[in-house]
Structures are given as C-alpha cells and as structure tokens.
Write a structure and sequence with these properties.
By secondary structure, the chain is mainly β. It contains one helix and 13 strands, in the order E-E-H-E-E-E-E-E-E-E-E-E-E-E.
Length: 179
C-alpha cells in the first residue's frame, strides 16, 4: 500500500509517559463499548481553532514534525493530538472506522508493546463522501502494523482502520490527525 509510511525505532519513548504520574482522563463517549480507554488531550478538540492544552504537546509535536519532514509529508494544520491508553480487553478489536468526514492523515506513535495483539489494522477500503464512519463486521486487512515502542506509522485517514485490543497489558499510542 503506497500511502502507508512505517518506520521503526524513530524515537525513544520517555518513561514518564508510561508512569503512574502521567495524567489520564476517562473519555466517556470516545470509547467503543465496554473497553477501558483513557486519553490525554494534547490540543483541544476545536477543529476550527485547535489550541495546545497540554504541556506535553511540544515533546510529541517535535517527533511528529521530524517524521513528517523526513518523509516529505506536508502538514497544513494539526487538528487532533492525544495520547491514548487502552487496557487489557476480552474483545478482539475496535470496529473498522474513519475518524472524520473530511480528508486527513493519521500518524500513530507507539509507546508500548508489553502485551499481545494490539496491532493497527488498515484496509484498502476508503470512506466515500456519504459512506458510514463505522463499518460493521470484518473487512479485509491490507496492512497490519505491529506495535513497538518508537515506531511511527502514517496513513490516509480515509482508509477504514481499527486497533486490536491488547491482551495481558496496555496499549499506549500518541495519535496526530492533520491535513
């Protein structure tokens, strides 16, 4: 798939982000079902005028910008950035979904791998203008990204994608959405 860029060992994970001192929040409506998910917003969810709301944004933004520059990925506007933690689950994965109705890219930084499963699954199927945000059932996975600390993947946000839920551990990623 030519629009998926993956690079291992791009950065060193700061252990602070995995410690009990890092502030996590419960998302309420941002979870899928009964899966335990927590987040730490780095910028506000105001898509028209996002603003930095976390002191940790600059750490992750530097990694994000360095990766994009290295791979000649144009960044016009970052409108989403958050660290997500998903805890051990008996469920298999999120539903395949796209994050927004408009053109965008998704960049994922992997911070942990102390679990089984937890892969990012990306399909060839792209959301059309009137297509659903969430697809029920199984879709053919074209790319399966194995999580490793320091790995980054970037892909077209119009592709339906899902995260496998971790088993025996926690999956921590930092996600940037941008165009």
């Amino acid at each position: 798939m030519d629009d998926v860029i993956e690079e291992s060992n791009f950065f060193q994970v700061d252990p602070y982000f995995l410690s009990e001192n890092f502030p996590w929040f419960y998302p309420g409506d941002a979870s899928f079902g009964s899966v335990q998910t927590h987040y730490h917003l780095l910028i506000s969810r105001n898509f028209n005028e996002p603003r930095v709301i976390s002191n940790y944004y600059t750490y992750f933004e530097h990694i994000f910008r360095s990766f994009c520059e290295k791979h000649s990925i144009k960044v016009n506007k970052v409108f989403g950035a958050a660290v997500h933690q998903t805890l051990d689950s008996k469920n298999s994965r999120q539903p395949f979904h796209v994050d927004f109705h408009f053109d965008h890219k998704v960049l994922i930084m992997y911070l942990t791998d102390d679990f089984t499963k937890g892969h990012t699954l990306i399909t060839d199927l792209r959301k059309t203008e009137r297509g659903p945000m969430v697809m029920d059932g199984d879709l053919e996975t074209r790319v399966e990204i194995e999580p490793k600390p320091g790995k980054i993947v970037c892909f077209d946000g119009a592709r339906y994608h899902a995260a496998e839920y971790p088993v025996n551990g926690r999956r921590v990623v930092c996600i940037f959405t941008f165009f």
